[in-house]
Automatic annotation (TrEMBL):
It comes from Cryobacterium sandaracinum. The lineage of its organism: Bacteria, Bacillati, Actinomycetota, Actinomycetes, Micrococcales. This is Discoidin domain-containing protein. It holds the Pfam family F5_F8_type_C. Gene3D superfamilies: Galactose-binding domain-like. Signal peptide: none annotated. SUPFAM superfamilies: Galactose-binding domain-like. Residues 38-174 form the F5/8 type C domain. It comes from the Bacteria. InterPro entries: FA58C, Galactose-bd-like_sf.
Amino acid sequence: MSTFVELLSPHPSIDGGSGTLSTVPAPSPRYPTRYSACAETRLLPGFSSTPLPRTGWTVTASDQETTGENGAAVHVLDGNASTCWRSKWSGTAVPLPHSITIDMHKTDTVAALKYLPRTSSSNGRIGRFEIHASPDGTNWGAAVATGTWADNALEKTTGFTPVATRFIRLTAITEAGHGGPGPAPPNSI
């Protein structure tokens, strides 16, 4: 699944155009673990529509797939929507939640996050999510935004009260739709 994360000016959460929330089935013997993925990450300041420059940024992940494919977290900052970070699925898959943490290496104002799901497959699309901010990468506090994104390939935008921060964490709590391993390799955030 490809994901594009972009922080924007404050505005209400938009679900990608469907106006409905997805339901996520419980894990089953066929789909015992849920996955996540993220193609690109962009953060936008305050009321500006121009993304913050990503020069010098780094990203870490709760887990990443580097054995079965190149699903390293660094892909969320590479400017290429056809590459993406994927949660570990080969060998022993890591169960949800999965997260990516962006370190901007300086404090900046962030007020929204844009997420572009993987368009080549529905595996790994994020359903229920949380967004956290931290000044130091240690103290996270309450989520600045939570919600559930629709199970489609449309870009999603979630706005929140502007926050001066150095770190942003996107956590996938559930995978949208059917998810789980299938004919295509599973992907995760």
